[in-house]
Amino acid sequence: MTLRTYKGIAPKLAEGVYVDASSVLVGDIELAKDVSIWPLVAARGDVNFIKIGARSNIQDGSVLHLSRPSKGKPAGSPLIIGEDVTVGHKVMLHGCTLGNRILVGMGAIVMDDVMVEDDVIIGAGSLVPPGKTLQSGYLYVGSPAKAARPLNDHEKSFLTESALNYVQLKNEYLAEG
């Protein structure tokens, strides 16, 4: 794996974390227990910080970044990802906050200052524009993303199941050495 220090700050990895050797993590990044980072992920915690909660997974080719502090926004926009979050292949997350038990579909883009509440599915290819709040319990699709319908019980339970499937898979990868 490629972990790079930036301005004296190195990524912090908790117990049981898997980071694929082809991924690059730079700077102020904190990965909680059982997080998995899959091939070709680029995560830059250089002008702000990235924090990823337990059992979350970031799939192949995703890009994680943030916005620097500025006069108009003194804290900038860090990237905060909650627990049991599945981030699909080739997703772009930029300076947003994701709650717990979320699925971000393949190729989705979630922009600065977006707040995604718990128990949400963002459909593949969706664009969530800056500053939008996605309310808990819905499927969001489109460009710009809009609530399509409430999640059913099966979909809600799948959010945790998906995260746990990736914990199992990363454990198999770690066992391979």
UniProtKB/TrEMBL annotation:
CDD domains: LbH_gamma_CA_like. Gene3D superfamilies: Hexapeptide repeat proteins. Coiled coil: none annotated. It holds the Pfam family Hexapep_2. PANTHER family: DYNACTIN SUBUNIT P25, PROTEIN YRDA. This is Gamma carbonic anhydrase family protein. It comes from Alishewanella maricola.
